[in-house]
Amino acid sequence: EVQVVESGGGLVQPGGSLRLSCAASGFTFSSHWMNWVRQAPGKGLEWVANINQDGSEQYYVDSVKGRSTISRDNAKNSLYLQMNSLRAEDTAVYYCARGRTGSSGWIMDVWGQGTTVTVSS
Amino acid sequence: DIVMTQSPDSLAVSLGERATINCKSSQSVLDSSNNKNYLTWYQQKPGQPPKQLIYWASTRESGVPDRFSGSGSGTDFTLTISSLQAEDVAVYYCQQYYSTPLTFGPGTKVDIK
Q1: Looking at residue A101, what is its pLDDT?
Q2: A27 in contact with chain B, both atoms CB, cutoff 8 A
Q3: Which of B3, B41, B97 to substitute to test the interface with A, most A CBs within 10 Å?
Q4: Among residues A92, A110, B1, B41, which one has the fewest Cβ atoms lying within 10 Å of its Cβ?
Q5: B28 burial level (CB within 10 Å; 0-12, 13-18, 19+)
Q6: What average pLDDT score do residues B86-105 get?
Q7: How do residues A51-99 score in pLDDT, each as one tens digit?
C-alpha cells in the first residue's frame, strides 16, 4: 500500500524548534518530489516547502524561508522538515504529500494523515 | 506569487443536483509549450487529509467517480459535480502548480440542501 506517515509534532514554546518526519512506503521514494503542506485550525491549506528527488532543489513559502529546512534521506525513505524560531502562526496540522512522477512532480497525489504542531507558551 | 480565488465560499445543493465551483488565478497557469493548465482540485472531508480529484485542470484521478469533472483554461476554471451525493459533502480546493510558491484557493464548502 502506498502511504506516507508523519510524526514529530507536538507542543513547543515560541522561539523553539521542532523536526517533523515523514516515513514513506509502498513506492519508490527516490523517484518523487515531496512536499509539506500545513493547515491552521479551521483554515485552508498552505503549501510550505518541497524538495526534488535527489534533494538538490528545495522551495519554500516566504513565511518559513530562513526558519525551516526541508530534507530527505532516500536510503531511509524519509522526508523531514526542521522548523526553527517557531511562532504562534506556525500552529497547524502539517501534511506530508507525494508529488506525482515525471513532469507532473508538483501535483500532490498521496497525502498523510498529518501531525499537529502547536506553538504556545 | 499566483493568487487563487474561489467562488462561492459555500453552496448547498439538493441530492442529485449539479454543484459548480469556480476558481480563478491571478495570472495564467497555462504553459503554451505543452498546452497544459497547471491546476488541480482537491476534496477534503472533516478530519481527513485532502484527496486529489483532478489534475491538469481536467484529468480525473484514478478511482474518482465520473460525476466529478474539471474544465477551464488560462485563469478561469470550474469543478462540476454533476449529481451530488451525500458523500460529496466536503470542502473543495483548487491549487496551481505552475510556479512556486504553490498556492491554494481558500476553499468552497459544499453541503446538502
Answers
A1: 82
A2: no
A3: B97
A4: B1
A5: middle
A6: 97
A7: 999 999 999 999 999 999 999 999 999 999 999 999 999 999 999 999 9
Question: pLDDT at position A34, please?
Answer: 97
The C-alpha cell of B96 is what?
Answer: 496551481
Q: Is B42 in Cβ contact with A107 (below 8 Å)?
A: no
Q: Could you tell me what percent of chain A has a pLDDT over 70? A: 99
Contact A107 B100 (CB under 8 A): no
For residue B69, what are the contacts with CB-CB under 8 A and spacing of at least 6? Answer: B54, B58, B60, B79, B80, B82
Q: Is residue A91 packed enough to be buried (19+ CB in 10 Å), middle (13-18) or exposed (0-12)?
A: middle
CB atoms inside a 10 Å sphere around CB A97 = 27
A109–B61: do the CB atoms touch at under 8 Å? Answer: yes
**Mean pLDDT across the stretch B85-90?**
98
Using the structure block, give the residue that is written with the C-alpha cell 515525471.
Answer: A102
> Is residue A36 scored above 90 in pLDDT?
yes
Beta strands B59-60 and B10-13: pairing type?
Answer: unpaired
- Whose CA is closest to A113, among A9, A28, A43, A31? A9
Q: 3-state SS of chain A?
A: CCEEEEECCEEECCCCCEEEEEEEECCCHHHCCEEEEEECCCCCEEEEEEECCCCCCEEECCCCCCCEEEEEEHHHCEEEEEECCCCHHHCEEEEEEEECCHHHCCCEEEECCCEEEEECC
Quick check: B95 and A45 in contact, CB under 8 A? yes
